[in-house]
Amino acid sequence: MTMVPVRIGLRLLSAAGLACAILACATSPLGRRQLAFFPDAQLAEMGAAAFNDLKTKTQVSTVPTTNEYVRCVANAVTTVLSPAESQVRTWEVVVFASKDANAFALPGGKIGVYTGLLGVAKTQDQLAAVIGHEIAHVLARHSNERVSQAYTAQVTLAGLGQSGAVSGPMMAALGLGTQVGILLPFGRTQESEADLIGLDLMARAGFDPRQATVLWQNMNAARTSGAPPEFLSTHPSDATRTAKLNARMVSAISLYDAARAAGRRPRCGP
Q1: Which residues contact 229 (CB under 8 A, 6 or more apart)?
Q2: Cα 247 to Cα 222: distance, rounded to the nearest angstrom
Q3: Catalytic entry in 45, 92, 134, 193
Q4: Which of 59, 171, 238, 245 has the fewest CB neighbours in a 10 Å radius?
């Protein structure tokens, strides 16, 4: 009895997705087609606003050695970026005094590292793996893509509700389908993409890319609660992540060897 409305809804959803793909198609550094509706300048403004807000709400580390260490690693990675990769020449790096084992990078050249991460990323190479990964999200315009995906989903579902083709309970089911079937898989794709781009970045900066897999082993050991099933997670499983990193390791080591031969030998210390 409900099959016809569902089919109508799914056709509308597919048509909207196709139109969006035609109207706002971009390509990631690894050649993947993306949706990116919003101007990069607008995302940079959003990133700067979010960063400034976080600085007012989260304690900033005042330990000189910690700040110097994190900035040394971050600067080594950002220095190898070409103008084609990023028009930002000076990245703002802030260390937040928090037990969270986390880091992030935002459009507009903003990098945040939580001090809790330094207990998991135990060497400069492992920290470079995290920072490279986060910068890769920016280079690949993942924030723009995520905002565009969410916008597409909201507009499409709102249109379905107004059309009367789908009942209230069915709208909720379609919303779950959009979340699990579209937004989360793209999240995993973006995370895997950032892993690979970040691996290359750290290697180009002269950091040992083999330490990236050690980092994720450390992350797994530090996890205090079980990971969700991979199909319901925005991050790939540890096994998937490690396998993809290892598959790219030979080329990353070549980049690392070339960087070292060119004199890029970071000495940031822990």
Answers
A1: none
A2: 24
A3: 134
A4: 59
Average pLDDT on 35-42 reads 80
For residues 164 and 247, the answer to whether their CB atoms sit within 8 Å is no
Residue-wise pLDDT for 164-184, tens only, equals 544 555 445 444 444 444 445
Residue 161's closest CA among 149, 180, 174?
A: 174
Q: How many Cα atoms within 13 Å fall on the side-chain side of residue 122? A: 11
pLDDT in tens, 102-126: 999 999 999 999 999 999 999 999 9
**CA proximity to 138, closest of 48, 13, 72:** 48
Q: Is 65 helix (H, G, I), strand (E, B) or coil?
A: helix
Catalytic, 134? Answer yes
Q: Measured between alpha carbons, how far is 26 from 35 in angstroms, rounded to an integer?
A: 6
Is the sign of the CA dihedral 240, 201, 105, 94 positive or negative? positive
Residue 46 structure tokens: 């959003």
Q: Output the CA–CA distances (angstroms, integers) from residue 35 to 100, 114, 175, 179, in the order listed.
A: 31, 30, 19, 16
Domain map (residue ranges) of the chain: 23-170+177-261
Are the CB atoms for 144 and 43 separated by under 8 Å?
yes
The span from the CA of 169 to the CA of 109, in Å, is 43
Q: Which pLDDT tens digit goes with each residue over 244-258?
A: 999 999 999 999 999
